[in-house]
Specification:
heterodimer, A: mainly alpha, 2 domains, B: alpha+beta, 4-stranded antiparallel sheet, 45% helix
Chain lengths: 332, 104
């Protein structure tokens, strides 16, 4: 296969050279085109060269007889769980993404203990925000169970998560600096990749995804599956969610992108001063909490009136289960 | 080659050249399609293996890593150390979601 691909590229390149060369010969006035024709002939060789290693690597992998890592049903289920996690948890801001990134850094056993100690410190500093998020989720779950969400109470809870989250960075600068100093350059780069990945997933499900989207994997589609919503219920929810939440300076997620980029640049450097990132970190944490919390609340406020009592009971239980998710529960 | 022949053959060679270009594009796309780097969900939840100063991820039968400019790269041929590592254990993935009776 690899040989066929590379030969195909070569043959195509030769035909292209011959074809464009003949065409150029026929037009004396387009002599200036000759160099560009020559230049355009180069890519086929490059394409051919690029095709060759890909095919040989594929052959090698096929010879190894391994499954397509990352694309199995289990993998997609894990991807979906992460998206669902970020739909429901917004306290902690990027510091939460950093803490989650530590979980999958793949460190040597000897290094794990000191890093986990730093992680515990980070989590301890996030307790006020985590508790505020518990109140928010509990308020929403209670409202779902009762058939009517107390919007004033929910709005106050969202604001509380925002305030508590905005205070996290100032409390964690020492721990972040310790984390930087304890990691090797490759581990710092890996942590940054993971923080960016968490931020991307958070953004995907809380900003990019339309609240009323019925597409596979979207929040409403997941809820349809969980509660066996009827088409009529889905239509009513879609209508209720169809007006997008207005973007305001208080919930514009650009602040998150700005801080993630600033953190990424600073953290891979040899010297790291977390205090220098205070302004974007504080703004970002507030944005994640307010935007994510408000969007989540709005979603369940639209859904609740449409549900049957049994569906409400099931959804309330599902939301209370989110209180036990890792990094969101009192136990680690 | 007289002028008549040239006039007649010009469209042919251009069509042939365009056809060849299209074929190359297809081949390029097909080759590129084989190199789909891991999605954010995978990077966020999977433990990497450190090799040659990079965190490498085994995904879709290839090892991927980010270079210092943020671009994804892959190994054309699987390095022996990574193959050996992969033979010992599959990539460890993590979920943070609580599942009623227990955690994954």
């Amino acid at each position: 296969m690899g040989h066929i691909r590379s030969m195909g590229g070569t043959v195509s390149g030769l035909v292209l050279i011959a074809g464009l060369g003949l065409a150029a010969c026929d037009n004396g006035s387009s002599g200036g085109a000759a160099p560009s024709t020559s230049a355009s002939v180069t890519p086929p060789a490059a394409t051919s060269a690029a095709a060759m290693p890909s095919a040989s690597a594929a052959s090698s992998a096929a010879a190894a007889g391994s499954a397509q890592a990352g694309s199995t049903a289990d993998d997609e289920a894990l991807n979906e769980e992460l998206r669902d996690y970020h739909r429901h948890h917004h306290h902690g801001g990027v510091t939460m993404f950093i803490s989650m990134a530590i979980d999958t850094l793949g460190l040597d056993p000897a290094k794990k203990a000191p890093i986990e100690k730093i992680q515990s410190d980070l989590q301890a500093k996030m307790v006020p925000a985590r508790d505020a998020e518990h109140d928010l989720l509990s308020t929403i779950a209670d409202g779902v169970a009762a058939g009517k969400i107390d919007t004033a109470k929910v709005d106050a809870a969202v604001a509380k998560v925002g305030t508590a989250s905005a205070g996290i960075h100032a409390a964690t600068t020492d721990a972040l600096t310790q984390l930087h100093d304890a990691l090797a350059p490759a581990e710092r780069a890996a942590l940054v990749d993971k923080v960016k990945a968490h931020a991307e997933v958070w953004r995907k499900v809380n900003v990019d995804e339309k609240a009323a989207s019925k597409e596979k994997g979207a929040h409403l589609a997941k809820l349809t599956e969980l509660l066996s919503l009827t088409p009529d219920q889905v239509d009513k929810i879609t209508t209720a969610l169809s007006a997008d939440m207005p973007v305001t300076p208080q919930n514009d997620p650009k602040a998150v992108d700005a801080y993630v980029q600033a953190f990424a640049t600073a953290f891979v450097a040899d010297k790291f001063d977390a205090k220098s990132l205070a302004a974007p970190a504080t703004a970002s944490a507030g944005h994640i909490a307010r935007h994510g919390g408000a969007r989540m609340a709005r979603f369940f406020e639209a859904v609740t009136p449409v549900l049957t009592p049994d569906q409400r009971t099931k959804l309330a239980a599902h939301l209370r289960e989110r209180l036990d998710d890792q990094h969101a529960s009192a136990a680690k | 080659m007289n002028r008549t022949t040239m006039t007649f053959s010009k469209p042919f060679v251009i069509v042939a050249a365009l056809g060849a270009l299209a074929a190359i594009s297809t081949i390029g796309a097909s080759a590129a399609a084989q190199w789909v780097p891991p999605p954010a969900e995978y990077i966020a939840s999977t433990e990497p293996v450190y090799y040659e100063g990079h965190a490498s991820y085994w995904y879709g039968n290839h090892w991927y890593w980010h270079d210092e400019h943020g671009a994804w790269n892959h190994y054309d041929h699987e390095p022996a150390a990574l193959a050996e590592r992969r033979g010992r254990a599959a990539p460890a993935r993590r979920s943070w979601v609580q599942h009623g009776g227990g955690r994954r």
